[in-house]
């Protein structure tokens, strides 16, 4: 159901702290390393670049429907949510704490273009440590749920992190990929991918496409309460699977099948037609409920 415009609280437009305030139970938010205890990046200071007191990420614990929750929220409005040394250390620290304390879940509010290039190797190492920490939390039986719907999407290393999570909840406005549109255009040329064609960008990386492809467990409205409802629904019946080789091989087979089926396509419209959608050009115009119903009716 689509909330009225008067009652909607856009996830896309909200800050990291506003998203957390609407996601968690009222009064349950407790920040770890709050402003008075945190520090900005020393790397940015050396480059005479402005820092942020939280280095662009909020880590906290709280509750969702009275279940104990850990949460990470990247601030896309600071350097595009890019991951630096301190930013990454805060995320890794919370995930390691989750292994010890076993909350009901870790909610990872991803809003990031990837690594912070200003911090070079420190940022790249931070991304790799986050990947390992996500897998360690899952191996300990703690689900890590990615929420993607911010202005920066989930690209670069954070796109990989999102896919390492237990599940992804995304809005139509969310985007998920490895290389961002501007990166592809810069490396391969505008003939390969026109980053200024916003409709094309969303047809290839946007929330509707990712949901239709099976990359995301839930598609929700661009509304903070809708994300909260989606998380609660997902966790209600969730059982984190034990890691195993058979599971990895099954996932690899899915990717190989996808590559064989769609490798020559250059637009989401072509992929949607191949999925069996009679009018692929209508997909961008469908509301959330209509798209979910459409996917449920597709051949498996």
Write up what this structure looks like.
Pfam families: Carboxyl_trans (PF01039). Helices cover 43% and strands 13% of the residues. The chain has a domain at 8-176 and 216-242: 2-enoyl-CoA Hydratase, Chain A, domain 1 (Alpha-Beta Complex), CATH 3.90.226.10. The chain is α/β, with parallel strands linked by helices and 300 residues long. Helix 4 runs parallel beside helix 5 (157-164). The protein starts with 15 loop residues before the first helix and ends with a helix. Helix 4 links the parallel strand 4 (105-110) and strand 5. It has twelve helices and seven strands.
CATH class identity of the domain at 8-176 and 216-242:
Alpha Beta
Architecture of the domain at 8-176 and 216-242, according to CATH?
Alpha-Beta Complex
Category by helix and strand content? alpha/beta
Please work out how many helical segments DSSP would assign.
12
Enumerate the strands of the largest sheet in spatial order, edge to edge or round the barrel. Answer: 1-2-3-4-5-6-7
CATH topology of the domain at 8-176 and 216-242: 2-enoyl-CoA Hydratase, Chain A, domain 1
Helix content percent band: 40-55%
Q: Major sheet: size, sense and barrel closure? A: 7 strands, mixed
What is the ordering of alpha helices and beta strands? HEHEEHEHEHEHHHEHHHH
As a whole number of angstroms, the C-alpha radius of gyration is 19 Å
CATH homologous superfamily (4th level) name of the domain at 8-176 and 216-242: 2-enoyl-CoA Hydratase, Chain A, domain 1
Total number of strands: 7
List segments where confidence is low: pLDDT < 50 over at least 5 consecutive residues. Answer: none
Strand content: 5-15%
Shape: globular
Question: What's the N-to-C terminus distance?
Answer: 25 Å
What is the arithmetic mean of pLDDT? 92
